[in-house]
Design brief:
This protein is mainly beta. 11% of the residues lie in helices and 44% in strands. Strands 2, 3, 5, 6 and 7 form a five-stranded antiparallel beta sheet that branches. The radius of gyration is 13 Å and the shape is elongated. It starts with a helix and ends with a strand.
């Protein structure tokens, strides 16, 4: 399942073999810092509007590989019916591996 998500993300999000790419990882948690397994993380390419998603593992972690360094992306997470605030990964963010943790205000 995770491999399929990575392949879909690669196809939808516009990375090419020649262009430099990066990876974004993080943890989805509640306001107390507890990991939220089964949360859905969405990443949207703001140029093409393509969206890919990943379901967090038991530790609340997610990842997206092969993201173009020439595009901006918006990330957000959903747990049950609650959403995190959107976070921006822009083309000016430095590094081949970026960490963006997402927090959801659970009830």
């Amino acid at each position: 399942m995770a491999a399929l998500s990575v392949l879909i993300a690669f196809a939808l999000l516009g990375a090419t073999r020649e262009a430099p790419t990066r990876t974004v990882t993080g943890v989805v948690s509640d306001k107390l810092g507890n990991a939220l397994p089964g949360a859905v993380v969405e990443i949207e390419n703001t140029r093409s509007m393509a969206i890919a998603s990943y379901i967090t593992q038991h530790d609340g972690r997610y990842f997206f590989h092969q993201l173009s360094t020439d595009n901006d992306y918006t990330l957000r997470a959903r747990y049950r019916s609650l959403w995190s605030k959107p976070r921006l990964l822009n083309k000016f963010t430095k590094g081949a591996r970026v960490t963006i943790d997402l927090q959801i205000e659970t009830k």
